[in-house]
Amino acid sequence: MILPIIAYGDPVLRKVGVDIDKDYQNLAELIENMKETMENAQGVGLAAPQIGKAIRLFIVDTSPFGADEDLEDDERAFLEGYKKTFINAKIVKEEGDEWAFTEGCLSIPDIREDVFREDTITIEYLDEKFEKHSEVLTGLAARVVQHEYDHIEGILFTDKISSLKKRLIKKKLENISKGKVNADYRMKFPLLKRR
């Protein structure tokens, strides 16, 4: 089932997610719904807070980046097949050079800004079967995971841009929270007046 994506301004996007266990109610169905929702919105990641749940769960699918001809063959091949579910994730190390990349967010449609992030991360997480993993990621895969991980920490990509850029997009952000935005997918707006 395709779920509405929570828009900028909703308090759930600012909550630090709580850990869950394998008995979390309807977890398999929730993950499947998140995958459908992400695919429908043509996203490369989706975190549980973006569908209204303040839990430590996110999914990524970097396959759209696999079409980028500017990437080296091995990175392109890796991105084409990188589809994962992250439960109770913890980034244990961020390192390397910071680099800028233009990021967007399904909860903040029509806004894209350059965000600086370190290029290598080590992350520990549980998969859908609650098996533990530790992974080192670099490049675009690391960036997508960092972006989604920020969501379960109550952080948005707009928090990582300069104060000048924040001032420049302030009105756009207010409009998004009021439902004054066109998105090609279902959204739920926190400040939309109910009649």
Automatic annotation (TrEMBL):
Any one of the GO BP annotations: translation
Cofactor: Fe(2+)
Record's keyword annotation contains Cytoplasm: no
InterPro entries linked to this entry: Peptide_deformylase, Peptide_deformylase_sf
Annotated CDD domains: Pep_deformylase
Catalytic site positions: 148
EC number: 3.5.1.88
Cofactor: binding details: Binds 1 Fe(2+) ion.
One Gene Ontology term of the molecular function aspect: peptide deformylase activity
Tree of life domain: Bacteria
Residues engaged in binding Fe cation: 105, 147, 151
Keywords carried by this UniProt record: Hydrolase, Iron, Metal-binding, Protein biosynthesis
PANTHER family (UniProt xref): PEPTIDE DEFORMYLASE (PTHR10458)
Assigned protein family: Belongs to the polypeptide deformylase family.
Function: Removes the formyl group from the N-terminal Met of newly synthesized proteins. Requires at least a dipeptide for an efficient rate of reaction. N-terminal L-methionine is a prerequisite for activity but the enzyme has broad specificity at other positions.
Protein name per UniProt: Peptide deformylase
Source species of the chain: Lutibacter agarilyticus
